[in-house]
Amino acid sequence: MRAADGAVTASVLCDAVQSLAETLHPHLKGRISVDLDTTFDRDLGLDSLTRIELLTRLEREFGVTLSEHDMTAAETPRDLLRALESSAPGARTGEDAAADSRMTRDDSAPASAPAETSTLVDALLWHAEAHPDRTHVHLLDEASGARKLGYGELLDQSLSVAAGLRARGFEPGQAAAIMLPTGVAYFFSFFGILLAGGVPVPIYPPARISQIEDHFRRHARILGNAGARFLITFEQAKQVTRLLASQVDTLDHVVTVEDLQGDQKPDVIPNVDGKSIAFLQYTSGSTGSPKGVVLTHANILASLDSMRQALAAEPSDVFVSWLPLYHDMGLIGAWMGSLVVGFPLVLMSPLSFLRRPESWLHAIETYQGTLSGGPNFAFELCTRRIREEDIDGLDLGSWRLAFNGAEPVSPATLRSFTDRFSRYGFRESAMTPVYGLAEATLGVAFTPINRGPRIDRINRRTFSLDGRATPVADEETDAVEFVSCGVPISGFEVRIVDDTGFEAGEREEGAVEFRGPSTTSGYYRNPKATRTLFHDEWLVSGDRGYIADGEVFITGRSKDVVIRAGRNIYPYELEQAVADVERVRRGCVAVFGASASGTERLVVVAETRETGEARRGEIRAQIERLTQDLLGMPADDVVLVPPHTVLKTSSGKIRRAAIRDLYERGALAPSVRAVWLQLLRLGLAGIAPSIKRLSKTAGAWAWAAYAAVVFAGLVLLAWPAVVLSKTPDTAFRRASRSARAAFALARIPIDISGLEHLPKATPFVLAANHSSYLDGLALAAVLPRRISFVAKRELSQTAFSGLFLRALGVQFVERFDHRRGAEDAQTIASTLSAGTPLCFFPEGTLHRMPGLLAFQLGAFSAAVEAGTCVIPVVIRGTRSILRGDSWFARKGRVRIEVLAPIYPQARNDSSAWQRAVSLRDQTRNVMLQRCGEPDLADRRALQDLKDHLKDES
């Protein structure tokens, strides 16, 4: 280990490096000799993750803890030797440092949050005035412990940065980029730019200083698009980037936080409001023009409010994060969330987590973290890399929500993480898959809290051929699994659009679109990309998915789906499977479709360090067999490439489009299958799928037109017969026959059950959920006796509908004039008491997204006053056939279930109003259990309250 005098020996160090290199490169065994000046990159081909493994081994072997700077700066064993020699034996561990911080943690100030703010600056000013000494962020450092950052210090230091910017000519509205690692300088820079009236532009720092030149060249397009005047970075990068500033016309200054800070404070803080840009979030992985998502203060605050409601987040929570601050999940969700909601943030470096993933879990235990999470790979890394001896005695009982998002969520990872860490107090219900993106200012859909993940197992063939997510049993082998991302958060709606451009039905896959209060207005200085971002008033996410029972399932990226022989192939599942092949580098596999004579070829690119042709042939054969077994078809090309060939974004996502571009330009290994005969065969094979897609689209349009003609035609035919009827009973029978004929001619089957629950002679109240304009028509088609529907008075105000509905005996209610509404309620109660059954849609309106809205009280007050029962009716399927905001109908099946009657409570001492409320709640609870849709009552009530308060103000 060490020499007798305690010194670290160069020979032992070089032996350790060589041992790791030979483990990674077996073919180099005996052919390399590591000395102090061997380079990790050029000579040994060690990537970032491999360096982390090397440093972890060295720490264990030499009994020291190396700093993050040692991880990023070391290029040779000589650099590591210097670092090891300066590190004392038995150095503090990350757990020790965190424990010290916990013992001295200042909890004297009560947890609190600003009641109402319009900007992030307002939030900081409020905290700095209310409790300047309260700890806002605990910054963990493995070597030196924790650095506490209070609200007062954050404001003071940020004001100093703002003054330094203004002194150098920075003007309000200008952009300044931040290229810094996790640390206090990042926070001072971000708020310093805001307090100077500017627009922060976060960009990710280089993994190693030796890469700074190439790194900056990649960022030059972003800086140019943003028009950045300043680049705030760290000292080692400043000298290099200054030389390259000529590539960006607007870039005048490359500075550090220390350069900007002084004793001065800005004379005036420029006024900003909710419409002002808070920062530009550049999407990762762009190969074309940069796309900077414009996020205003109003966007951010609206997003945080929606997420706070979905997560029931409070100032008493504790957020533990290793997520980088240049990505929206770490920047908005963790840091800005802690600022606005008021909970403390425990922050560690991403490199600390990658190097020792157990440090994340120990921090959660130490600080009693309640909120934390990351991409799927983080949970997988913990499962694979953490040793039992490193987490002995660990307690994760405080962790109530473990977010899993930002990349495809693997069912296998969810299961393995829960199985592994459940004995350490981790609860399955804490695992919370989520869905979001920068264009939404982060959150779109979250798994309901304390529910745990929902995994949908569907038929693979049906899904790939027809895009239908048909559930199958656990024993079914030809199946694929997708994880639910939950339901849309408050204020958000999600829809699935198919190839026709219209909304798809339940469990039908298509393009994911959304709208909500925090949706971006577009991309900064990029009108072309902005135009493609919206479809009508809906934002096009670029993802594909389906909705089942009101929950969103993401199946992949639209641009990544490979269409081959009429089947949709989703790369992620195959990539995960190929990554398990021996000698293939995990996380370094790309599957994509390449153009060939009008069709697509299925290409698998996998990194390996193997160079021998025999062994490479075995790997290729394994991948081909795996592809055949998994998809039922072979890959058209399997390309084995050396390490670092598979391109990734800064967050580690595979850049399939960029790799496809390299492949098609011949920049990857040449295809062994690319012969003219195969291209001809593929071209011919592509004709049938194209015809199938066109016929499917044409068929959808044709059926929608046919259904419209059928229903409109029968309404026109039925109208005179109904209007001229002498009694409502006769009118209802005629309307019922017409409705049955319309559904039959349109080939929409209606399944009805529970009719035995309907009283044959006594009056009753029918309470049905309302999801489509077809609901009333469907009920009229199947009910065995006349029921008087209750409808809004606006329907009576046109001659066509008014005459028709009055003939049917429809009861109208006034929604806006309260005096008239009370009179209508009395009339309805009298009608019920006289013996006529009534049908209410107690939601009062319909909603295009699945979900049961809050119930109005009218139906239940009438039942209590008349002393009659309420019969709940659950209608399913009509929403998929005809959405509330569309007249484009789709094929489907309607299911109507009549449930057992519910009677009002006995009078006793309770008032009629109390009994009506109780009856309403019982009825709604029963319907909620049977309808298979989420509960939207709480979110709608909160939104109504907000709208009311806004109107009052």
What does the model show?
- It is built from 32 helices and 34 strands.
- α5 (94-103) runs parallel beside α15 (358-366) and α24 (687-723) packs across α27.
- It is globular and about 105 Å long.
- The chain folds into five domains: 10-91, ACP-like (Non-ribosomal Peptide Synthetase Peptidyl Carrier Protein, Chain A, Orthogonal Bundle), CATH 1.10.1200.10; 117-308, Rossmann fold, CATH 3.40.50; 454-560, Luciferase, Domain 3 (Luciferase, domain 3, Roll), CATH 2.30.38; 562-685, ANL, C-terminal domain (GMP Synthetase, Chain A, domain 3); 714-952, 3-Layer(aba) Sandwich (Glycerol-3-phosphate (1)-acyltransferase), CATH 3.40.1130.
- It is 41% helix and 18% strand.
- By secondary structure, it is an alpha/beta fold.
- The N and C termini lie far apart (72 Å).
- A seven-stranded mixed β-sheet has the order 28-34-33-29-32-30-31, with helices on both faces.
Reconstruct the topology from this structure:
Layout: H1 10-24, H2 48-62, H3 68-73, H4 77-85, H5 94-103, H6 120-130, E1 135-141, E2 145-150, H7 151-167, E3 175-178, H8 184-195, E4 199-202, H9 212-226, E5 228-232, H10 235-243, E6 253-255, H11 257-260, E7 277-282, E8 292-296, H12 297-311, E9 319-321, H13 328-341, E10 345-347, H14 350-355, H15 358-366, E11 371-374, H16 376-385, E12 401-404, H17 411-421, E13 431-437, E14 442-446, E15 455-459, H18 460-466, E16 479-483, E17 487-488, E18 493-497, E19 510-515, H19 527-533, E20 534-535, E21 538-548, E22 551-557, E23 562-564, E24 567-569, H20 571-579, E25 584-596, E26 599-608, H21 613-631, E27 637-641, H22 656-664, H23 676-685, H24 687-723, H25 728-745, E28 750-753, E29 765-768, H26 775-782, E30 788-792, H27 799-807, E31 811-813, H28 818-833, E32 838-840, H29 858-866, E33 870-876, H30 878-881, E34 894-898, H31 912-931, H32 937-952
Parallel strand pairs: 1-10, 3-4, 3-5, 5-6, 9-10, 11-12, 12-13, 26-27, 28-34, 29-32, 29-33, 30-31, 30-32
Antiparallel strand pairs: 1-2, 7-8, 13-14, 14-17, 15-16, 18-19, 19-21, 20-21, 21-22, 23-24, 25-26, 33-34
Helix pairs in contact: 1-4, 5-15, 6-7, 7-8, 12-13, 16-17, 24-25, 24-27, 25-26, 28-29, 29-31
